[in-house]
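> forwarded from #structure-qc
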């Protein structure tokens, strides 16, 4: 039996079988837990935030930057990497890890979200989706067979199943048909060959309908996968619907498998989801808002390009130990942003990802020490989506 509020790694035999999810500590007052997800490229400590490297790069940063911040896993995009440079080329270059010189684990999404989000979507059939390329408008096709082939050629550690992302709002009838198709595609995905050591994660869909999410989760578990993701949240629905979607999905997923909430990267939503038993997150937010001149902080995010920081000698975040905050002022960063200097994107991305990583490290420590609930409450008391920065 797993003890609560205690680190259980000591004395545990080294287990390196890819796919094994080892729960190492539990919070006594919530469903939060610490774990180790074993992959072909090492153990990933959870709860974890995964930086997004859509096109085999976390924008403006080197792989050494990302690993130096403490990240053990990042995300690559199946659709975009197949468009450029092509999964077959990546395979000939030795796989995605060697191609981009990343030593840690890689999760590749299925491409389903990108296909769903393209404005010129043509047709969904039982075999997959016909759509227009965002690059040249050429007709493209992707289905479960194609998605798993691309991910196999990329050689990622974790391959996501091809699913149908349900938009918000959606009628119950539309959502039910999408769930049925997602489940049928899950069976097709499981039957496909994998890269050596590659894991497969199923994706729970169901939109805003708890009953559909429960059915989708339960039937995915019956098929059996290495981990499970909660999809179709953060797709335009009001914030107040995100946590109910998490709850409706998590309660039907097995305890001994990693749980991944896709596309969520706001610190308050992550902490609330961890309290409900979620282990993994990804989002483009830290690097995207960096390119828009905004900083992620423990108190929320704020726009550095604001005129009030023109002569401010302070770091982005008081008390932050990242490279950016140790060396540069708000005034200098604002100057770079307003001049369109590329260094601004790099320095803000370094800070933003550092902030995400530190909060996840503190979260793991709080769970191990048995005071996660107090940590979460104190953090949320001071947090605003748009920070009130002095």
């Amino acid at each position: 039996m797993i003890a609560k509020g205690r680190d259980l790694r000591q004395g545990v035999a080294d287990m390196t079988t890819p796919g094994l999810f080892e729960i190492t500590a539990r919070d006594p007052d919530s469903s939060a837990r610490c774990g180790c997800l074993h992959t072909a490229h090492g153990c990933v400590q959870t709860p974890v935030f995964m930086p997004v490297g859509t096109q085999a790069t976390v924008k403006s940063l080197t792989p050494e930057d990302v690993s130096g911040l403490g990240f053990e896993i990042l995300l690559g995009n199946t659709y975009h990497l197949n468009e450029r440079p092509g999964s077959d080329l990546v395979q000939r270059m030795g796989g995605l890890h060697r191609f981009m010189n990343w030593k840690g684990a890689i999760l590749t999404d299925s491409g389903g979200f990108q296909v769903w989000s393209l404005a010129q979507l043509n047709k969904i059939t039982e075999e997959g989706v016909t759509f227009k390329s965002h690059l040249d408008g050429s007709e493209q096709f992707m289905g479960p067979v194609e998605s798993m082939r691309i991910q196999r050629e990329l050689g990622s550690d974790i391959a996501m199943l091809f699913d149908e992302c349900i938009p918000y709002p959606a009628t119950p009838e539309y959502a039910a048909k999408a769930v049925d198709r997602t489940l049928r595609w899950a069976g097709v995905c499981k039957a496909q060959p994998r890269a050596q050591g590659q894991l497969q994660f199923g994706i729970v869909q169901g939109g805003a309908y708890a009953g559909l999410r429960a059915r989708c989760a339960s039937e995915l578990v019956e098929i059996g996968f290495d981990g499970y993701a909660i999809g179709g949240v953060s797709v335009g629905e009001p914030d107040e619907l995100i946590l109910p979607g998490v709850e409706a999905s998590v309660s039907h997923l097995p305890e001994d498998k990693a749980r991944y909430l896709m596309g969520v990267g706001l610190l308050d939503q992550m902490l609330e989801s961890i309290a409900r038993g979620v282990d993994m997150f990804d989002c483009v937010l830290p690097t995207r808002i960096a390119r828009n001149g905004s900083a992620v902080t423990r108190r929320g995010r704020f726009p550095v390009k604001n005129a009030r920081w023109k002569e401010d000698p302070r770091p982005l975040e008081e008390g932050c130990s990242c490279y950016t905050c140790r060396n540069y002022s708000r005034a200098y960063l604002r100057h770079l942003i307003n001049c369109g200097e590329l260094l601004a994107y790099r320095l803000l991305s370094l800070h933003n990802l550092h902030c995400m990583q530190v909060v996840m490290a503190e979260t793991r420590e709080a769970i191990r020490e048995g005071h996660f609930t107090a940590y979460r409450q104190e953090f949320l008391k001071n947090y605003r989506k748009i920070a009130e920065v002095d």
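QC bot note: The chain has two domains: 47-282, 289-381. Residues 289-381 form one domain.
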